[in-house]
Write a structure and sequence with these properties.
With 932 residues, this protein is mainly α. It is built from 45 helices and eleven strands.
Length: 932
Amino acid sequence: MPTEIEQMWAVTARQGELRAIGSALTDRGGILLTGTTGVGKTRLLAASLQRVAAEGRTVVAVGGAGGPETGCAENFCSLAECLDRLESVRRHSDPARRTVVGFDDAHLVEESAAHRLYRLTASGRVAVAATARRDAALPTGVDKLWVERLVERLEVRPFARDVVSSILHGRVGGPVDSATLERLWATTRGNALILHELVEYALTDGSLRRVDGRWHWDGLPARPPERLADIVLLRLRDLAPEEQELVNVLAVAGPVEYGLAERLGLARAAETLDGRDLVQIEYSGRRVGIRLTEPLTGAVVADRMSGLTAQRLRLQLADAIEATGARREDDVVRMATLRMAAGRVPEPAVLLAAARTAAHRRDFALTEQLCRSVLGNPRPPRHTPPVPGPAGDGAPVAGPARGVAGADNVSVAGEGDGAGGGVVTADEARAALLLGRALAGQGRHEEAEAVFAGALAERPGAAPHGLPRDELIAAVHDRADNAAWGLGRGADAATVVDGLPAGLGAQGTGVRHGFHAVLALLADRPDDAARTGRTVLPGEQPDSVVVQHLLPPAAFALSELGRPAEALALIARHARDLGGWHDDARLRCLVVTARCAFAQGDLGRVADTLDATGRFATPGDDLRQLQLALLRSRLLRLLGRPAEAVTLLRGASTLRVRRDWLGTPSWTLAQLAGALAEAGRPTEALQTLVEAQAARRDAPAYPLADDALLLEHAVVLAHTGDRSGAACRALEVVQRAAARPATALAALHLAVRVADAPRAAVRAAQLAAGAHSELMRLQCDHVVALTRADGEALEDVSARFRTMGAVALAAEAAAQAADMYRRDGRRRASRLARAAGARLLAETGCALVPWADPQEQRQPDRAAPLTSREREVAALAAGGLSNRDIAARLVVSVRTVENHLYRVYEKLGITARSDLGGALQGPARNSLGRAA
C-alpha cells in the first residue's frame, strides 16, 4: 500500500493528466497511459482508479494496479480471469457509470485476452484504464482500442524543471537553493521514480540538508546507493551484447560521436538504444553525438563495471579518437583523460595541450587535474614577495595562502637564479600559470594568487623560462583579473598590469588599456572608460589586438552613459571581422552589442545578435551559456513572457562562471527574483532576492551590478504590493547611479510607474538630455506623461512601446491612459484605451502589471502595509525557515525576526505561520494577468 509520501509523488504536478484521465473514462472508452520506465504511469493509474472509485463507479483491477487504497471492488490475478467475470456485465445506459478495468503493462497482455477486452470496450460494457511502455509493441486488440479512438492515448512525460522545484518544496517543506534544483533535475532528468528514490535517500543519509535556511544537496556520492542503482539497471536488463557494450562506452567516456561508435562496430546498437529511449542523438552542425538519456545511468553502470572492462574501453576509445586524426580541439582532452583514467599518463606536452583546451572551455577542475599531472610530485613553496602597491592600500595580493588546501602544493620559482629551485622546465612553468587560472576559476582566489606569484617571481616583468609573450600576457591578465574580481583589490590589479614590460607590442598595450577601462567600470567611472576608448581606438586598425581588448568595455561605458548609438557606431567602425577575434573578446563584443541594442530599443537587432552569439558557441562554454541566458531572459521579460525567463535564469544561476564586468552571481539571482515576481510567484521571488543579497555580501563591490540588484529588488516589491518601498529602492538607485544616466533613468521610470513622484519629470528630462537612445527618450516621455496625467501622451507612449516590441510596457501605458481618461470623465476615450490594452494582452498572452490593473487597485491589498524587511521575513517564514535560520540569512538577531513576524501577523490579520504563503501571494490572476 503506498505511503502518504508515495501518494504525494504520484499526483504532484499531475493534475492536468488526472483531469484528462477522468474525462476519458467518462466520455470515452477509457485511457491508455504510455511512457518510459519510471515516469510514474503506475502511480498515476492508481491515483486515477482511486478517484473514480470515490465517485461511486465500480472499479476492478488486475494484479498490482489495484489495492485497498484504490477502493477497487475486486482485484484479479490475471486479465483473462477478470474478463471471465465481466463477460456477464450488461451495457450501461449511462457511459459515465460503466465498470472501469484497471491494469498495468498492457504490452504484456496475451493476444486472446486483448481481443476480448476490445470487444467488451467496443460494446460499451467496460471502460479501460491501462499503462504500457512507450517503446514496446502492443497486442493487436489493445492497438485497436486507441486506433479506433475507443480510448484516449496519453503520454506521461518526465517532470520539467519548474515541476521538480514545486515537488521538492512540498516534500522538504522549505526553499531549495537554485544549484540543488538544477543538480537534481540534471541527475534525474525529471524521471519521477528516480527523483523520488534519490530525494528520499538523500534525506535519509543527510546529504540533502538545510544550509543557512535553504535545502542544499552537493550531488551523488562517489558510489550510487544500492537500491537506486538496482532501479536504474532495471531498464538495462535485456540488452543485447552490442547494446551493453555501447552503454558501457558511454558510461566511462560520456557522450561520443556517432563516427566513433561506427569505428567500434556499435552503430547498429546506437539505433536500437535510441528507439528504446536509452540514448539520445544530438545534432550540432555536421556532428552527430550520442549520450545516455539519464546521466545517472552512466554513474551506475560505471560503478558496477569491472575495472579491466573500463580500462579496455577507455584505451579502445582513445585509440579510435587518435586514429581519426584528433582534428577537433577537444579530441586531445578526451584522449588524455581517457588514457589517464586507464593508468597511462601521456607526455607532458599532450597534458599541457589538453589543459589549455580545458581552460579555454572553462572546465577548471579538469584543468587543475591536468596541470598537477604535469607538475608531478609537489615541492614545498618558496617565499614570494607581495605585489607592490600604494601605501595604505591594505593587505598585499601575493604571498602563500596559509591554511588553504592546495595552496602549498606547487613550487614554481625560477631555476638557476639563486631563487631556491622549483620549476625546472618550460612545460612546468606553463602548467603552473594554467593552474593559477584554474584555481581562480574555481573561486580559490588566495591559492591562485600564491601560484601566480611563484610562477612570475623569476624576474619582474620577464617571462619564466623564456615563455612566449602571449603566454606571459595571458598569465598577467589572469592574475590581475583574480586580484580585481576575486580578491577585490583593484589597485593591486592595476599594479600587476602596469608591470608588463614595454616591449610586448600591441598585445601588451591592448591588455593595459582594456584592463584599465574595466577597472574604471569597477570603480563606477564610466566616463574614464569611454574616454580611453575615444582616445586610443581611432589610432588602431579594425580588429586589432588593442581593439579586441578595449572596444567592449569602452562601448559598454558609452551605453551606460546614455549613448548607445555612439557605442554601436564605434563597434561597427572597429569590429569588422569578429570571426578572427579571440573567443572571449568576441563574446564580450557581441554581448555589449546586444546591450546597446536594448538601450536603443532595437529588439530586432538584439535577436540577430543573440543568433550570432549562438553560432560561435563551443561545447561546455558556461560563460557563453550564461550571457545568452541573461540576454534572452531580458528580451522575454520585455515581451511579457516572464515564466520562460524564469526557466532560463534558473539554469543560468547554477553555472559556475567567474564574476566579471558583464555579470556576477548576485546579479543573475536578482534577475531571477524579478522574473519570478513578474510571473506571479512573489514568495519565491522574495526568497530568491534574499539569496541574491547573501551572494552580494560575499563578493567585492561592483556598483553597476549592485544597482542592478537594487533595481530588481524594487521590481519584486512592486509586484508584491509594496509600491512605496519599491519607489524608495528605485529612487535610491537614481541617486547612486548619477554617473550612469541610462541606469538612473530606468530606475526613475520604475519609481514613477509604481508610485506618485510629482517632481520626477524635471529629473527625467535632465537624465534624457543629450541621450541618443530611443529607449531613454521613451522612458522620459512616459515619466512626463504620468506626472502630468496626460492620457493622449500615454496612448502615444503605448503605441511607441508596441512598435518597439516591448508589449508589456505598451499594455501598461494603455491601461494608464484609460485610467487618466476616466479621472477626466472621458469615458469613451477610457473604454477605447482599455480595449486597446486588452487586445494587446490577448494577442500576446502577457499579463498586466498589478499597479496598472484597475480591478486590483480597487481591491484591498492586505500585504501593502508590510515594510520591505517584514516582507522578506514573511517570505522566508512562508518558505519553511525557522526564526533562527531567517536570522542567520538576514544577519539579524532571532528577537528581531520574532518582532517582525509579530507585526506581520497583526498587519495581515492572520494567526498562524501556515497562513503566510496565501497572504503574501495576493489575489489570484487570470491568463491575462487580471486579478480574479
